[in-house]
Design goal:
This is Catalase. InterPro entries: Catalase_sf (IPR020835). This protein has helices at residues 16-40, 133-147, 153-163, 170-181, 224-234, 285-288, 306-331; strands at residues 52-63, 79-88, 103-110, 116-123, 192-193, 197-200, 203-211, 237-245, 267-274, 279-280, 303-304. It is an alpha+beta fold. The protein has one domain (9-331): Beta Barrel (Catalase HpII,  Chain A, domain 1). The radius of gyration is 19 Å and the shape is globular.
């Protein structure tokens, strides 16, 4: 394996303007979560993104015996325990039968004692349309304020317009076409991606989970939630887990998330497996309050990049607000 680039904390640094906008955004996150129960017409406070839980399941990560020597120190066990949450990316919980096919596949990796090793929130679209932290924060704040009816739709449309130019890359257009062609496919037939970058010790990687032998037409007449529950009750789910390394910033940029990494082959590190019947109750308090904050990862698995850096406090604000409200709404009933 050629020598990858090493992590540098400068990749994560936010400017004073970005930090100021982030404080405004954090307040909008808290406000949204406080009103989320009424916005989604449910009896608990939801997440600020990926609010709708389709399923929660236990699984295993089975490490390949022939992984490169450089990776063996990070994966020194044959298997690791997983908790997996399947979700929809929308901020609100839709009661419609047909959801927008923007899916989440969040993975929590634990050791044999149940201690957290890493959280990886994966999604079924490999790119992110915004590279500018300021643009992202203004848009995210506008979205939150739009839903809680404090800002007008004009402000939201203005911020969306600023994002559009970032989608005119060959990578983004190619993946939009691919995504459109798969829009009706079964959720568990999609590949899932880290989108952002993560540390692997001193190195930097992206992650891809690729399902094996899943019928893309499975459950088309069912709601997504029902289709997943039926599949995971009757069938083992198996997916290959790959990583890409960053070797040079021109071909594998850290803070340019609207283009695919080039000239970095996928390296298979193992398989993810959910044995049939290992599905959990997604509506239980314990599972609804699950957090997949990647900044809770061990230091050598931490996120990398400016957009990623925003997750740290955003997850904390969202979880703290959800936890406070849900203890009142659910734990005491």
């Amino acid at each position: 394996m050629p020598n990858p680039l090493k992590y540098n904390k400068d990749y994560d640094k936010l400017t004073d303007e970005e930090r100021a906008l982030f404080e405004i955004n954090k307040k909008s996150i808290s406000d949204f979560v406080e009103q989320s129960a009424s916005l989604s017409d449910v009896n608990y406070a939801t997440r600020n993104a990926h609010a709708k839980t389709y399923a929660v399941a236990n699984g295993k990560l089975i490490i390949n015996k022939d992984i490169p020597t450089e990776l063996q120190e990070f994966f020194d066990k044959e298997t690791y325990d997983l908790t997996i949450r399947l979700s929809n990316a929308h901020l609100k919980i839709s009661k419609n039968k047909k959801d927008i096919p923007a899916y989440g596949f969040a993975v929590k990796i634990k050791d044999e004692h149940g201690n957290l090793i890493a959280n990886y929130p994966l999604v079924n679209f490999p790119l992110f349309p915004i590279n500018s932290v300021c643009t992202f924060l203004k848009l995210f704040t506008s979205v939150n304020q739009f839903y809680i009816k404090k800002w007008s739709s004009f402000s939201l449309i203005t911020q969306i317009a600023k994002v559009i130019p970032s989608t005119f890359t060959s990578s983004f257009i190619k993946n939009i076409v691919r995504f459109f062609n798969k829009r009706n496919d079964f959720i568990l037939s999609f590949d899932f991606y880290s989108v952002g970058v993560y540390r692997l010790g001193d190195y930097m990687i992206k992650i891809k989970v690729s399902p094996k032998s899943v019928d893309k037409k499975f459950g088309r007449k069912k709601k997504v939630k029902d289709a997943i529950e039926y599949y995971l009750t009757m069938t083992d789910f198996i997916a290959d887990v790959h990583v890409q390394f960053c070797y040079d910033l021109e071909n594998q940029p850290i803070n340019k998330l609207n283009v695919e990494w080039k000239n970095s082959p996928y390296i298979k590190i193992g398989q993810l497996k959910i044995e049939n019947g290992n599905i959990l109750d997604p509506a239980s308090c314990e599972n609804e309050l699950l957090s997949f904050n990647p900044y809770e990862n061990k230091i050598f698995f931490q996120p990398v990049g400016k957009i990623q850096k925003l997750r740290e406090e955003a997850y904390k604000v969202s979880l703290k607000t959800r936890d406070k409200i849900n203890k009142l709404l659910k734990y005491n009933t």
